[in-house]
């Protein structure tokens, strides 16, 4: 079987805070040209190499891994989708990249996260990263943070409900831990958060 006929897969490079380091961008472009791959910026702000021959998967990942790139994998904690934040938007109230990295650092030791879970962080009430259609949405306000849960997109979208208001950044992390633990406990393989909102044990009321 020729390389053109073999199974093709994709490689998703995770980009915390939506930032694409120049060295990873240059290497990904070089690999795309060398192996005739497609490049795709995903809706979750990651970079994907398309049409990767299965036999060359590890060969293509290696130079990216050597630069510190991390890849999407089953059970990995989701990288939050973020807006550009205070340094690049006049409406922004917080550094969304910094909060995203704090969240990822907090959950770095978590071995497995149940699938179908999306987190979004907005630096202001405009909610540009899709707060209303994410499983967990975090919105910066002038009084702290509001946290939303249970949103989803798709054919039958659901709008998230607010579960916490005017909390501190430390309380954001605590709330995330509670929500993730609850989702894990109530989910067998994968499940969107909205299906759990009416569970009698759901840890937060709507406010």
Report on this model:
The chain contains four helices and eight strands, in the order βαββαβαββββα. Strand 6 (136-141) and strand 7 form a beta hairpin. The radius of gyration is 18 Å and the shape is globular. Helix content is 26%, strand content 20%. The chain has helices at 22-35, 57-66, 96-106, 169-186, and strands at residues 8-13, 38-41, 47-53, 81-82, 119-122, 136-141, 144-149, 161-167. The mean pLDDT is 95. The strands form two sheets. It has a five-stranded mixed β-sheet with strand order 4-5-6-7-8, with helices on one face. The chain has two domains: 8-66, 2-Layer Sandwich (Alpha-Beta Plaits); 81-196, 2-Layer Sandwich (Sulfite Reductase Hemoprotein, domain 1). It is an alpha/beta fold and 207 residues long.
């Amino acid at each position: 079987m020729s390389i053109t006929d073999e199974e093709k897969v994709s490689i998703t490079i995770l980009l915390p805070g939506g930032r694409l380091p120049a060295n990873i961008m240059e290497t990904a472009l070089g690999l795309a040209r060398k192996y005739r791959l497609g490049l795709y910026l995903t809706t979750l702000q990651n970079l994907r190499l398309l049409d990767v021959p299965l036999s060359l998967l590890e060969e293509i990942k290696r130079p990216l891994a050597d630069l510190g790139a991390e890849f999407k994998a089953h059970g990995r904690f989701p990288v939050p989708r973020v807006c550009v934040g205070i340094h690049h938007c006049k409406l922004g109230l917080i550094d969304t990249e910094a909060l995203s990295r704090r969240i990822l650092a907090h959950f770095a030791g978590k071995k497995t996260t149940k699938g179908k879970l999306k987190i979004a962080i907005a630096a202001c009430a405009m909610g540009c990263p899709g707060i209303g259609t994410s499983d967990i949405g975090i919105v910066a306000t002038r009084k702290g943070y509001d946290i939303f849960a249970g949103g989803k997109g798709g054919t039958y979208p659901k709008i998230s409900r607010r579960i916490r208001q005017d909390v501190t950044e430390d309380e954001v992390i605590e709330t995330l831990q509670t929500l993730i633990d609850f989702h894990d406990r109530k989910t067998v393989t994968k499940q969107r958060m909205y299906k759990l909102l009416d569970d009698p044990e759901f840890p937060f009321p709507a406010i």
